[in-house]
Fold each of these.
Amino acid sequence: MHAAFEGDRVVGGAAALALQMTVPGGSLPCTGVTAVGVDPTHRRRGILTRMMRAQLDAAHERGDPIAALWPSEASIYGRFGFGLASFAVELQVPRDHSAFALPVERIPARIISAEEALDAFPRVYDRVAARTPGMYARSREWWKSRILPDPRERRRSAGPARRVLLERDGEPVAYAIYRHQQAFEYGVSTGSLLVVEAFAADPAAEAALWRYLCDIDWVATITASLLPLDHPLLLLVTDMPRLRFTLSNALWVRLVDVGAALSGRGYRDGGEIVFDVVDTFAPWNEGRWRLADGRAERTDAEPDVLLPAAELGAAYLGGVTFGQLGRAGRVDEMKPGALGRADSVFRGDRAPWCPETF
Ligand SMILES: CC(C)(COP(=O)(O)OP(=O)(O)OC[C@H]1O[C@@H](n2cnc3c(N)ncnc32)[C@H](O)[C@@H]1OP(=O)(O)O)[C@@H](O)C(=O)NCCC(=O)NCCS
């Protein structure tokens, strides 16, 4: 935690979580930027800028190749080299139109206590997190302090958290945490089931888990937020147009150390790309980087792509393509076809997913 002082009074703060984040083909130490705030009496005097400076320098010294955050205001962090790298989807499924296209395996489900969940849920979560860019390792402490407690202030207008575990042959294969938000009109339920998080280790367990959630009585709508763009629920249901789909931003990523970050993830092929990176806030990243066979090194070669560090952060997890960035005018293609080549190297097999805000 960095703090800004006036005399002995704290007037601002910025925290960094020590995360281990999944990236395509592996995982890396990641500074999770959070709890950023400046007293209303001290705003617009450069305090945030100085805290970001101190925080980035500390991350660089620590050797974290990347940093990530959930912004409360998207206009703040681009100047510090963070780029919009993933999206969050909220899906609302009308229970009356929640039929699935294919038959669903029957997997026994049990409602369990927070104590039992502490051992069972990580066995599913860890498998999903290991293959999903944007997810990060949860320590036992994280489960105990952030995920499983159910204090009243977290419930808002909904009921207590329910924890359901699905086991195949005694092995945890899926779980969900959800709440009921009950409402009735003329004796008919208009309430919602609010899914806090739901993970499954394999496709059959995924279908069984969502079938369970969509079959709970006294519910009109099943609402799940913080889903990835390519969540299977979109294709599990027969009647997809009945789903309500809302898109918002999720993780913003900054490459603290361009060389270590580019060399630290996996690639679809070993193709060669030369990036010319503009990074005034982290000048050690400035200049040309040649990526070949999954390794990034300094080079004098002519660049294929000229781009700000924030846009390299945006493309890093595979959730935003260089083609998209080019069409939005955010990166410059210096050689014909370079953006397409960069995409064929960077493309992952799934959208990044960060299922919790921090
Ligand atoms: C956002 C916040 C931390 C900014 O702190 P600050 O000390 O006033 O920021 P700075 O003076 O260092 O401003 C840095 C730059 O960001 C811009 N900026 C600051 N707050 C902004 C905002 N809310 N929206 C858009 N731009 C903002 C400033 O104009 C300045 O731009 P410039 O460099 O082009 O002049 C502060 O207003 C705050 O605490 N807000 C409420 C909590 C919050 O939103 N925190 C962020 C959580 S992700």
Note: The two ends are 14 Å apart (CA to CA).
Amino acid sequence: MLSDLGPARQARPTGGLPVMSLLVENLQAVGARIAAAAQRSGRTAADVTLVAVTKSIAAGTIRPLAAAGCLDFGESRPQELWSKAESLADLPIRWHFIGHLQRNRVEGTLAVATRIHSVDGLRLLAAIDAAAAALNRRVSVLLEINISGDSAKHGFMPAEMPQRVREAAAYSHVQIRGLMGMAGIMGGIERARRDFRALREVRDQLRGLNVAGLTLDELSMGMSDDFEVAVEEGATIVRVGSALFAGVGP
Ligand SMILES: *Cc1c(COP(=O)(O)O)cnc(C)c1O
């Protein structure tokens, strides 16, 4: 397994290993599906960023994917993010944090993450703003919306958003770039499409409020089972794990 190789071997291109060709094949297949879906929505592949979700994937398996040109990676657990970011610090990777973030993990997460997709409350936003101020930085974030209404999911409710974005815009060390959401578990692909369309409509509605300091260009939505409909409905970022790592193992 690649993850058993020493650091010197890991740092070199892994051309020729079956896992490399599998990853490249998966990456190309996902990329082609994104491009086709983008075209159906009147856009191009360049309008959609693929974030490769690496939860349960070893750092050594991430290297060949980075070598193949995929440099946006997503993690949903702070500790895993921190340790992978450290192991892969020699690569120009952009780390996206996509999971539930506790306030006591904010500082360590900001130290390595390019963007936090999953801001699910104003107290978390305030903690991010304070930590970013201490670092003299402005941090790019997305607000997570519980679009499916599933009580097990985190996120703001759509109806509270007009009020919340006005409050959120007061924090000067965060840059609110858009919204993130997940489709409901039940209801299949057509349910997913409805949820994604609803997220886009919430975004459009909020954009129409013209709140100063708010840029809501990004829509982070779509995972392995539903990224094509997400792109058709306007996703600018898809977060894909299992479809990229199919057949590869950890
Ligand atoms: C795991 C995860 C993904 C990727 O899921 P796959 O079905 O493996 O593509 C995307 N977004 C979030 C928030 C996740 O936790």
Note: Residues 15-245 form a domain with the TIM Barrel fold (CATH 3.20.20.10).
Amino acid sequence: MRWGQAFIPTLREAPADAVTSSHRLLLRGGYIRQVAPGVFAHLFLAQKSLSRIKQIIREEMNRIGGQEIGLPVLSLSPPGNESRLGEAASDLFKLRDRNQHELDLGAAREEAMAQIAHGELRSYKQLPQIWYQIQRKFRDEPRPKSGLLRLREFAMADACSFDLDEAGLEVSYQKHVDACTRVFRRCGLKYLYAQTHSTLTAENISSEFVAPCEVGENLVAVCDCGYAANVQTAEAKSPPAHDLDGNAPLEAFATPGVKTIDDLVRFTSESPTRMIKTLVYMAEGQPVVLLLRGDQNLSEPKLARVLGADVFRPATPEEALRLHGASLGSLGPVGLKGTRLIADRSLDGRKNLMAGANQDETHLRNVTPGRDFTAESRDIRLATEDDLCLRCGNHLHVAKTIEVGRLAKLGGHYSEAMHTTVLNQHGKEVPLMMGCYGIGLERILAATVEQNHDDDGIFLPRAIAPFDLIVTAAQMDDGPVRTAAEKLYEEAQAQALEVLFDDRAERPGVKFKDADLIGVPYRVTLGRRKLEQGLVEIFERSTKRIEDVKLENVVRYLKENYLR
Ligand SMILES: [Zn+2]
């Protein structure tokens, strides 16, 4: 492609609302333009990169026996899908047709694939199956932001596996872990593979592939021993606490205006690790009191597992008042009767702590779990940077990441709801075992940009860059330079390289700036002076290393040393 004819609308400045590097640089590099909040047009460069990502996914899905299918974007809302989809249901785009039939836009693929399987897969002889598609999806995202990181319309590769039993499902799941690993490695993405919670039900095994980067909002606890899990799921141990010695009696003290743990820290000048945070939740109409260390936070996915329920919510101030006889801010565990009390494990063996007194603007000192109240000890908190790894005892590190892939063992979740069974070898009807797997295409591109950029622009790995190479004629008005550049452009294309030929009549400085911006890994520059000695310049964008090479060898040299 000749740059002079290409539509690559680079910008010197990005709009002020583009905060993350990928958003800013993909706009500036002329990859994307915003059409509506969370909705972007992919221009020429983005489309080229995304096609390469798509191709890598196809090759790796085909390698594990995946069969590509195409499902429609529009589907009838199946009755009862809200309960099957769990928390994802509220983000679906809904519309009505002229006959007032309710339709979903880009609804859950696993739902649609499960429906097809329901009518068609009847015997163990047809199993296992892996179906996948690469298709646009829609989410009524409440806070679209960060360019391609949080979108309302996006492309995903979705796969479903169908197996006869748990053992088969495990094999299919592992195949997808391998396929995802190869996809992300080939894309040149730095990634972690982490355990996570299921968005569907508390019991399903799920994992995620995540790309560490500064703007990531998905927190993953990582240990040098290889353990990695989302902080919502991670099992971790608190370091030993230093409590006051002695068996001091409970003591109430006035705390006027204290509403939060932070207020209490300011009021008492004590560490929040010596305080008990009391939360009240409602599950199936019943209150559940949750106790955490003052500096720690609740993990709702862990709570879901403990409660064995997916539907619960924080109590309203009125509900809490009815239970505790006090307003939020002064709640505590001491003296509560007839309510389920769950204390996080980090409160095990602690003593002389502070907690609300269940009396407005009053707290208690010297609260000792086991002596002053009895609670179930469970793991219900988010893992933190302070925590120790349960496997090896070393400190965990919490990494900010972007989720790029998600895998889940659905097991019989859909087939039981839809009564989908298959005949096993003994002629017995058994529920069909399903797994579902997803990879976000724009997420890969944006996360790679987050990981590979500097002040001048983007440097994408070759596998997903829109071009392998830019050939830059420094002086297009110079006859020998132009002729040599044209010839090199032809030759590189003949050698199956994706080449962008910068044939624009711009100053060299402008051309270099644009080339640095748009993320092509290599540039070959033909300039008058070096060309007189038969030399051209190879510039490696990621390292900014420059190498002079003989013009007649340059394509072979590039292929042997850089573009293998
Ligand atoms: Zn460890």
Note: The pocket of zinc ion is lined by residues 223, 225, 227, 389, 391-392, 394 (CB under 6 Å).
